[in-house]
Amino acid sequence: MQQIEIIYPDDWHCHLRDGIALTTTIPMATKQFKRVIAMPNLQTPVSDVEAAEAYYHRIMAHVPNDVSFQPLMTLYLKDNTTPDIITHAAQSPLIFACKLYPAGVTTNSQAGVGKLLSLYSIFETMAKHQLPLLIHGEVNDHDVDVYDRERVFIDKHLQDIVKQFPDLKIVFEHITTKDAVDFVLSGPDTLAATITPQHLLYNRNALFVGGLRPHHYCLPVLKRKIHQEALINAAISGNPKFFIGTDSAPHAKSQKESACGCAGIFSHHAAIEIYAHIFDQANALDKLENFTSRFGADFYQLPYNQDKIILQKQSWTIPEEYPYLDESIIPFLASENINWQRVS
Ligand code: DOR
Ligand code: ZN
After folding, report:
1. Are 310 and 344 in contact (CB under 8 A)?
2. Which residue in 323, 51, 243 sits closest to 59, CA to CA?
3. Among 26, 66, 248, 307, which has the highest number of CB atoms less than 10 A from its own CB?
4. Best residue among 11, 15, 256 to mutate for probing ligand 1, ranked by most atoms within 8 Å of CB
5. Using one digit for the tens of pLDDT, what is the confidence trace for 154-209?
6. Which residues pair with 36 in a beta bridge?
7. 173 Cα: distance to centroid of ligand 2 (angstroms)
8. How far apart are CA 176 and CA 174, in angstroms?
9. Is 10 a catalytic residue?
10. What CA–CA distance (Å, rounded) separates 48 from 55?
11. pLDDT tens per residue across span 27-85
């Protein structure tokens, strides 16, 4: 197959950042996607309705008038989030979901949740108002091996949340392990998962090829090959519980190439082409459209996008860098060839 046409994709998990970063992130996001779920982990977390609505308008100020693009806004849950904040959020047409970061697990998560059990009344209010819960599923326990933090989160927390809240839609974000795949498969229809391109394309060896590779560092960190294979199988399985979520997470080059480098891989320059490349390698191009353009919409009960895009099988080279803030950003697969390119 040399050319495929698919429904315009959505990205059910990404980081757009703020301020002048939006001049880089929004043009790329709008080319790749019609709808994106915008994560709330700004330097000052987006933790109430006013902040989420203001952030929405800052994003939209960078979207050209003739482009249809919808950022779906999220609220950052904190220990002091109240049921009133959730009720208020449910009334906002712009707020789509709430994001749970266990405190300290990743970028700008210091203000995240310390005591998960004390959030149960919040989860109840979310279920009542049908606000989905998006979870960064890792424990932040420095005694737990970094490669085990997702599995331990399932055992210690997620299992119970899923059991206690049968009416709450839960998305286990950017899953990285076979344990997570199995857990999602064994769970109810209210439980789904997003999968990033980097966790499909690479395993943890990629962090150490010929030296330390900061541009392959993200959280949850890449895992062993058996986990990568389980993720590929889930993504191409045709099971609607698994869908796109790039976790595109821009950090300037100097923040990545540092003695204490930031976690995050930027993929919005070519996300859809990279997924096409991966699905083709797995002989599953026929499963791409459902993964990128239907299953997420189905889970969230949204209509499919009307427009289509065309992807062609032709090799091209991803640029070495793009301008970002007052310096540059190194994109995922910088200077590498991939086999699929968008032609419309
Ligand atoms: O690698 C990551 N980067 N993982 C996250 O959970 C957050 C993200 C970011 O915001 O940079
Ligand atoms: Zn993320």
Report:
1. yes
2. 51
3. 248
4. 15
5. 999 999 999 999 999 999 999 999 999 999 999 999 999 999 999 999 999 999 99
6. 11, 71
7. 8
8. 6
9. no
10. 11
11. 999 999 999 999 999 999 999 999 999 999 999 999 999 999 999 999 999 999 999 99
With 0.90 as the threshold, say if the pTM is over it: yes
138: its two tokens: 């890792």
* Residue 227 Cβ < 6 Å to ligand 1: no
* Residue to mutate, 14, 17, 107, ligand 1, most ligand atoms under 8 Å from C-beta: 107
Q: How far is CA 23 from the centre of its chain?
A: 20
Residues whose CB falls within 8 Å of the CB of residue 118, separated by 6 or more in sequence, listed in order: 79
C-alpha distance from residue 308 to each of 34, 158, 238, 294, 312 (Å) = 10, 36, 20, 12, 13
Kindly state if the Cβ of 136 falls inside 6 Å of ligand 1.
yes
- Reference 333, options 276, 260, 258; nearest CA is 276
What residues does each domain of the chain span? 3-342
